């Protein structure tokens, strides 16, 4: 098995994950919200997050059957996560305005 240092940042398993709970203003920090309520939106879906990231020009893909571990509700609207590529093969940023997943989350809303 290859070590993590040898894997390329462009491998899909190295993309960052964004779950809808990270951006949901109905969630508390303990329930998984990662941004301020003022920047969060009401009940975002993984498809909406994918659309916004794609419109900005990021390389994204949707994993529909994934669930956030803190999400107690198993309804279809709460399922899914978005994988986003922040770095290219050489380690440089794909888009300089998004150097980290935190900045991406704040800007996507």
TrEMBL record:
GO terms for molecular function: 7S RNA binding. GO terms for cellular component: nucleolus; nucleoplasm; signal recognition particle, endoplasmic reticulum targeting. InterPro entries: Signal_recog_particle_SRP19 (IPR002778), SRP19-like_sf (IPR036521). It holds the Pfam family SRP19. One of its GO terms (biological process) is SRP-dependent cotranslational protein targeting to membrane, signal sequence recognition. Transmembrane segments: none annotated. Belongs to the SRP19 family. This is Signal recognition particle 19 kDa protein. It comes from Ailuropoda melanoleuca (Giant panda). The gene is SRP19.
């Amino acid at each position: 098995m290859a070590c993590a240092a040898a894997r390329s940042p462009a491998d899909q398993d190295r993309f960052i994950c964004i779950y809808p709970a990270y951006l949901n203003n109905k969630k508390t920090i303990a329930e998984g919200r990662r941004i301020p309520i003022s920047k969060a939106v009401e009940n975002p879906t993984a498809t909406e997050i994918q659309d916004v990231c794609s419109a900005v020009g990021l390389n994204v893909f949707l994993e529909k059957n994934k669930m956030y571990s803190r999400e107690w509700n198993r309804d279809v609207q709460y399922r899914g996560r978005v994988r986003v590529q922040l770095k290219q093969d050489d380690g440089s940023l794909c888009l300089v305005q998004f150097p980290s997943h935190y900045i991406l989350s704040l800007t996507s809303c």
